Amino acid sequence: MALQDPTSELMADPYAVYARLREPGPVHRIAGTDGLPAWLVTRYDDVRQALADPRLSLDKRNAAPGGYRGLALPPALDANLLNMDPPDHTRIRRLVSRAFTPRHIAQLREPIRKTADQLLDAIAPHGRADLIASYAAPLPINVICDLLGVASEDRRDFRAWTDALVAPDPAQPSRAKEAVGGMLAFFTQLIARKRAEPADDLLSALIAVRDEEDRLNEDELMSLAFLILFAGYENTVHLIGNATLALLSHPDQLAALRADPGRLGGAVEELARYDGPAPLAIRRFPTEDITIGGVTIPAGETVLLSLAAAHRDPHRFTDPDRLDIGRDATGHLALGHGIHYCLGAPLARMETEIALAALLERFPRLELDVPHSELRWRPSMRARGLLSLPVRY
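RE: above sequence
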């Protein structure tokens, strides 16, 4: 089955499109996120296995010449974990993993709840709000900036930058270039300030690893800071927004959660499965000819692993199109699998759980402020997120 205009079709009804692709066969040739041909993998077992297959490289140098045209980032932002294989991936991941241990993340619970309450205090008197702009976006921005050590006065409009990269506007091609320039300047200045005045934060620790231990080069240092901020914001804002919409769209599940808030941890897993923030895993390139689902994919071609299609595979999840907060959603792939499993997964889970708990406690009569049909999604195959979420309370 061919998708002539994949972005348009997937914006209209992504899960129906993935179902049409998944049913006749596990692997399809489509126009990828960059408009060039790619192989889309749609079934859970194949996707999960491929996520951990070392023959599927993230390093763009393993792409066939002329076969991939992704985001054009300078080396200072591009030398990050999403473009690396072992041993560099192993080395850099080990350096930063200490900041994302369960013990360290647990220490952030109270500050995250305080930030959530402050954001809700600000909107409570108005009776209505756009929950993306006023809550789901600023919460993870504040959390990740606190973790990195970005002072309040130094925080920028990261949402505008990430929008320009993840969902570029064809009518304004210069916006992506401007966003890259803005981020490069921001991180250059930030690292210079942190070098001059180190503090007890993650970025200062990474700078020490670079300067004192020589275990990172300068491009790797800046790219790592960029990735932590970019991914820490991008995925979590959509996870919170999508989860809130899913609950508002399923009053029975919302009522069940209100009746028993202790189910929230399990509910977050099901919400991530049901409508996660990343429809596709980061693109991969076979280092040799590889067979997936009976289809041989030549070395160097682009492979897209559809997490969204895998999560609605009836062979893995019973009645997969139904939201069920009591479901055992263990094994969902929303935060990855294998060596590239999301480093910030514990933080994203906790932020989402806290964000939902604070929101539902504060506003017992929360509801959509527009018809569901009027909601608009970001025009992107890479990210599944709302442009806005108007609510009243």
